[in-house]
């Protein structure tokens, strides 16, 4: 019995190591980024596409993955918009469709808001429709939140006044293969002033969840979330969720995400682990009842972490942002990944950025897709003041063998120094065994600049110099470049460098 227990422990530890091996592979930056664009304020990833909103610039950037390089494909801007519309405040992508919120758009009223739908047609992204609420009024801020699932879009309008001043609402749109049409406006059955219903929205198949983070429950401003189920063409309120043990100003419902029969709700000012430390609540639907399955907190939580400021669930994984991190000297922010293991949700890794600086707000937006994670850091100060950034992480299954799993010296590593550099930089790498190595440099648009080396190297640490030139030997212009390490024909690591002039 003792031997069996030991074996089980070893299996659990080894499997946890594998699933927890999430590696930052690339920092995404806007090719034309400027100060205070807040690139990364919103993010969404699906398959080989990622979308990053730049709220203050009034734009959203689409990136496409080629091999392991994420390339800026296009900058989306509205056909009739203005930067003050806050186009890019919210974004969502699913397959060949993108929806972008612009909550300050003024077409039908002062800051009534709008949302734009883009589709991938004939190998390019085209704006196909602008969505406006049929009964919109001034300062509704329609578009503060958006979500997309199949032929349905749900758009939050958290300052709509139908149930009282700033009580909030959400609008459901349906695509009939010709156009998107408003199908229904949904509001809370217990709506009240300043509830901000629709501050967050998420849709999955026949279910919609809407957060109301300032809703009063039991005479306390704790927040709540409402779940609606589709019956034919109607969306019917199924239940209202809240934390019965909530503290006041918990912000339950600040963020929401639903996937099938699982739902996660962020409560970014939950104070169980300290004032403003934050939490996230997991619910599972069983026989038409949504039961709380877990309350998630960061393993190293502290006051004013705002854990749960944004959340995302996909399958057996939950990602929660904590954009402030009071207990960290730099306070750059982080994101935490949890996995369902048997009957428990286990924190398997804490993500931080390679370019962390004080108050980056890393984690203020998060998204999951298959083996990739996208995290926004809208106040990142890379190369200028607050243009923002986003970071791609990959579940990097490098296939370590059992006899090397505990050897810290056996790994793929890649770095360059100095960085920034002028006129040349040394690119250093280590490999666990003799391998065929390629190192390739790309510009910020993903275009190949130069293959620096292609040769067989022995196990161990190596370095090679890049002189800041292209294949023709000509010096390249100043800017951001990426260099990729390929081992035996497979991409392993991507890093960023900056050439100064």
- First-last Cα distance: 67 Å
Rounded mean pLDDT score: 88
- In the sheet with the most strands, the strands line up as 1-30-29-28
- Total helix count? 1
SSE-based structural type: mainly beta
**Oligomer category:** single chain
Beta-strand content estimate: over 45%
Low-confidence residue ranges: 1-20, 397-410
How much helical structure, as a percent, in the residues?
under 10%
Round the Cα radius of gyration to an integer and report it.
Answer: 23 Å
Per DSSP E runs of 2 or more residues, the count of β-strands stands at 37
Major sheet attributes = 4 strands, antiparallel
User: Rough shape?
Assistant: globular
Describe this structure in words.
The chain is mostly beta strands. Among the domains are: 98-120 and 132-242, no CATH class; 413-499, Sandwich (Immunoglobulin-like). The protein contains one helix and 37 strands. The protein has one helix spanning 2-19, and strands at residues 22-28, 39-46, 49-54, 59-66, 69-76, 90-94, 97-102, 114-121, 124-131, 142-149, 152-157, 169-175, 180-186, 197-204, 207-212, 216-217, 220-221, 224-231, 234-241, 252-259, 262-267, 279-286, 289-296, 307-314, 317-322, 334-341, 344-351, 362-369, 372-377, 389-395, 413-417, 425-431, 435-443, 448-457, 460-466, 479-487, 490-499. The strands form ten sheets. It has a four-stranded antiparallel beta sheet, with no helix packed on it. A four-stranded antiparallel beta sheet has the order 2-3-4-5, with no helix packed on it. The longest helix is centred in the N-terminal third of the chain and has 18 residues, at 2-19. It is globular and about 65 Å long. The model is unreliable at 1-20 and 397-410 (pLDDT under 50).
